[in-house]
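Letters spell out the chain; backbone shape is given numerically. Both lines appear below:
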Amino acid sequence: MRKWTFLGKLMYFLPVFWMLSGSPAQAGTFGVNLVVNGDAEAQTAGRNGSLLTSYTGWVADGKLGVYEYQTTNSGYPRLSDPGPTDRGANFFTGNENISQASAYQEIDLSFAATEIDAGTATYDFSGWLGGYSAQGDNTVLALTFYSGTGQALGATSLGPVTPADRQNTTGLLQRSTTGAPPVGTRSAQVTMTMTRVSGSYNDGYADNIELVLTSSSGTGGGTDVVSSSVIRFFNWAEDSCRIGSPRNGPRPG
């Protein structure tokens, strides 16, 4: 019967190694924006806007819209109005004759369970919020943390940005907050809600919504999954070559 050398075992089990290194557990990681499509760029919006009942990353109520920044039309935020310097083509907003519009998304934070429970994980939650001219229409962003069983453990929010904040001009201003996810947190929900105060359109605006987790322990979420898988694999290979396959008996000295 053929004896398995280290090289033979390595080549045979290499696909297993690649499968481990590509584990779905790496979906979340530290230092990156965990909000999917927080900038509304996954959609194509025309100059007159688009009413979307569903779009990438978000569970919507069918009342939200994705509009394109204007070049000349002052009826919507323009590229030259206050807003993100790295803005893309689009932003989120309410729609005509809608008193309130909202959308949310669930974010898996289980990749950071060890750091969260040790108190070494922190979050940065931010977004650009605004409205139209002197009207009070606005957007509020809410962040709620949940346990593995779905129990709400804590919450925070951003906004609203008032007309006074905007000096009665059309545009978006950045709002942000930082903190530590409550011990036991395994997921979070980000919700944006646009509220109409006056006028026929709901002119609450939002763009560049971000939730970023960092860790002071020096670990790196999904990267740790890869590292531990690699270590386990090569430890197994080394031990196998040292003691031999049980089927073939001890490796000769």
